[in-house]
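hey so u asked for the seq, here:
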Amino acid sequence: MTILAIDTSNYPLGVALIEDNQVLGEYITNLKKNHSVRIMPAIQTLMKDCERVPAQLTKIVVAKGPGSYTGVRIGVTIAKTLAWSLKIPLVGVSSIEIIAAGAGRHFDGYISPLIDARRGQVYTGLYEYKSGELTTVKEDRLVLSADWATSLKEVDKPILFVGNDLPLHQAVLEGTLSTQAVFAAITEHNPRPSELALLGKDKQEEDIHSFVPNYIRLAEAEAKWLEANGKILKG
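ran it, structure tokens below
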């Protein structure tokens, strides 16, 4: 089994190839650049360096959000196109789950990845490794970081916070949770595309035509349009 993983859901751009039980190659950057211009060259370079051709791929795994609306759409669109053209399965994985997988494998407690959602909000969830498997403790959500910290005071284990946007919310988390909060090292913040591939390896495949990103909330423009048109329709 040769799996191509694609993640453009946030600033980090990542692609990876895994084959059976080996990571053949992995490419990650964390730059504020246009993913639509860079993702296909990144895939082509990885495939060439690993001496693989598209016909050898057996599955595509993609980060399905939440995150940047544009970034998520780019990755999902490319993944769907590749899977459809190659006639191979497509799998979507939570962008939050990917961050948890890379940082918390050997942490004895819960893992809370954070993606900034502006206005004091974060996309987050709560995960835990059990017998080597990443499990969901609290489903992915959009929440004020202050409210999230308050809700986590009830749990009975230390919590590892991780993600490139952690510095934006660290003071709030630390102020509420004190020593219960553990903060990952900067080398653990980037989502690893090889972890994405591994997470998607045994997940059930998506229907390519109906598969859509998981934004968790509406894009601002769409929300405003619905609000405006809802008022028109009502009155």
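The mean pLDDT is 93. Residues 167 and 183 are 10 Å apart (CA to CA).
lmk if thats what u needed
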